[in-house]
Here is the input.
Amino acid sequence: MSATLTDPIIVGSLVACIAVLGLSPSRYVSFGKEVIGSALTVLLVVGSGPLVGVLLGNAVAPYVGAYEEVLIFCTSIVLIDVLFGSKNNPIVCLILCIWGLISPLDAIVEIAGQMAGGLIGYPVLSAICAAYGKGMGGPSVDLATDFNTALASEALASSLLTTTIALLAMTSIGQYYWVKQPAIAATIRFIVIQPFFSATGPAMNPMLATTYQVFANGTWPADMLGHYVVYWVAAPAGATAAAIVLKMALGIGQPAAAPAAAAKKPKKPKKA
Here is the structure.
């Protein structure tokens, strides 16, 4: 049975997420941004299909994959980034940590905020869908999928996400925001619709997968192999492998070479 915002499992989990902020209370702003950004990610990105169904009055099947849904999906990713600059994904925190762009403590606090946002977002999205008689779903391992395929699906999808971020955000393209961010959003959408990745959603985002399961089942997932290993081991492993290779290949996180003008000046010859 799906959970509501007032159910003990949601309330208790939110308290646990907030408690993580106690590790570094000064990071409350970034924590809050992740809560809001991740909740909106659930409502507008995961919920892009149901939202189109509400707006157009369509049944469940026609609106999934409709151009309106794709537009809301991609636009929402860009809009959330513009407004909050939040990462909304533990995978993104992980790779930025590997690249030396955020600290491990930054990552831990922000991931806690992301989990809180997901725990809030799914019940709210469900209530909106129910009010309009629409269905909704979330990332999960297909029961017909074997374990190895599920592992490969999330690992490969997460490595592709990491590669996309590296090539578009960590190269010279990154200075052109309105090229970079829409391209990242479009690539995420492209990965999501590929048949191979449908075995696990795909999530490419452990927060979305786990908070959906908590919401949908009213409890934290109990199947270690079927959930945590797929979303919290395989996905980060794929992202980590790609992040390390790309860090070496692109020099991400490496200080730029000092320009000639800033080079150490030669010493003046001593006077005789």
Summary: The radius of gyration is 21 Å.
